[in-house]
Design goal:
single chain, alpha/beta, about 425 residues
């Protein structure tokens, strides 16, 4: 390897980080113009908006997850398994934590990795706002491992109910947070119950499922227009979901949630999906500027304010729009940031001027499982905005994931993936049952 080859390190293999590594690998890595390395604490990637489907079993992460090692080999970049613990900006190195097996035996010691250009793409985690008992009693849906934990607990609950349906009235599940994750999970759970009933779970039907969706604000889906929010509220209510708005959770216990107005919401299984923050260790990481939820503050070029060789994209970046409102933590924003960061890294290497990031809102879509899809399309897709529901909205929702796949695999391979997916829907169970 030539000594003048730039080392570009990307930390975080989410939607933005993986798309960026793929683009840079194909552009620079394949021609030996740069050495691109992606670092992530997991072995595989799954598009985060699909985690609610993994949680209910509608999606099998063992089939749909992407191997970082295989993808890196196919796209001319390197992959390092590891967890970032520090940045040394003077020496331009990052430190990765040691890797242990399940028994605690050290497999790989702490190590340093040099960089010329560093991109932070660590995404976000759930923000429990320090609410008492949440960490101990609620499940977050931040990664596939947590989604799988929910899935296993859900199956155990339904199995227990099926065996004791004459003794137990209902299965109680509480979801805190009326954003996209909470709403989509609420609807997907009803579909899961229907499928499990068809596979022989006796006595299990929608009447046996008691879902409570808790939102502190005035309405669910606050990021969407009121009409779309009202439509989703109506759909969930028709399914039997108990939607509570203007309800703040003050603490969580093993069997339920306490609210500010003194009520107790009984629950056998609880999910916290209210608010996001960047991981706690990022606060003052490497002496970089962060905001109150640990996001790295960036310039319009997506470079961090205190170091021009470090970029930040996606949910871990605090990027202000011209109107003074921060860019929202959405997959479409991570995708757009990855595209601009790609061009700005090339410009930085070539000594050219860097471009400023301007967030383009393409709209928001929320899937209510097989029952409905609601949302709005905005920006260049329509003049102003257009509210869509039903089949058109469902097609638009699916197309968002297809766009992510195209960015990773190209059109031909994405077409083949869609073909295999269609075959699997015929030969595989409609729900993951293990």
């Amino acid at each position: 390897m030539k000594t003048d080859v730039k080392k570009i390190v990307i930390v975080g293999g989410g939607a933005g980080g993986l798309e960026l590594a793929t683009s840079l690998g194909n552009k620079l890595g394949r021609k030996g113009k740069a050495e691109i390395t992606l670092v992530d604490r997991n072995q595989s990637h799954l598009w985060k908006p699909l985690l609610h489907e993994v949680a209910t079993g509608a999606l099998d992460d063992g089939v749909d997850a992407l191997s970082y090692l295989a993808h890196a080999r196919n796209n001319s970049f390197h992959f390092q398994l590891g967890t970032l613990i520090d940045i040394n900006r003077e020496q331009r190195t990052i430190r990765l934590a040691c890797i242990n097996n399940e028994q605690g035996e050290e497999l790989v010691p702490e190590r340093d990795m040099a960089y010329d250009i560093l991109v932070m793409a660590l995404g976000s985690v759930s923000n429990d706002f320090g609410t008492q008992g949440v960490k101990e009693n609620c499940i977050y849906l931040d990664n596939p491992k947590q989604a799988q934990l929910f899935h296993n607990n859900m199956l155990n609950l339904f199995l227990k109910f099926s065996a004791h349906s004459n003794e137990q009235e209902r299965v109680n599940i509480a979801i805190v947070g009326g954003g996209a994750t909470g709403v989509e999970l609420s609807a997907e759970l009803h579909n899961a119950v229907k499928q499990l009933h068809s596979y022989g779970y006796q006595g299990l039907d929608n009447k046996a499922l008691n879902i409570t969706l808790v939102e502190a604000g005035e309405r669910i889906l606050p990021a969407l227009p009121p009409r779309i929010s009202a439509s989703a509220h109506h759909e969930l209510t028709n399914l039997g979901v108990n939607v509570l708005t203007q309800t703040m959770v003050t603490s969580a216990e093993t069997n339920g949630l306490h609210t500010k107005n003194g009520d107790f919401i009984k629950a056998d299984l609880m999910v916290w999906a209210a608010g996001i923050k960047a991981p706690d260790f990022m606060k003052d990481l490497g002496g970089l500027e962060t905001n109150r939820i640990n996001q790295l503050v960036v310039l319009p070029t997506l470079q961090t304010t205190l170091d021009s060789t470090i970029f930040a994209i996606g949910d871990c970046a605090n990027c202000m729009q011209a109107n003074g409102i921060p860019v929202p933590p959405r997959a479409q924003a991570a995708h757009q940031m990855a595209s601009l960061c790609y061009h700005n890294i090339l410009a930085l290497m070539n000594g050219s001027d860097l471009k400023s990031y301007h967030y383009t809102d393409r709209g928001s879509l929320v899937s209510l499982s097989k029952y409905s899809t609601v949302g709005s399309l905005m920006g260049n897709l329509t003049k102003g905005s257009m509210m869509i529901e039903g089949r058109l909205a469902r097609l638009a929702y699916i197309s968002l994931y297809r766009m992510h796949q195209v960015a990773l695999f190209g059109y031909v391979k994405t077409g083949l993936i869609m073909l295999v997916g269609g075959i699997n829907r015929i030969i595989r169970p409609r729900l993951k049952l293990h």
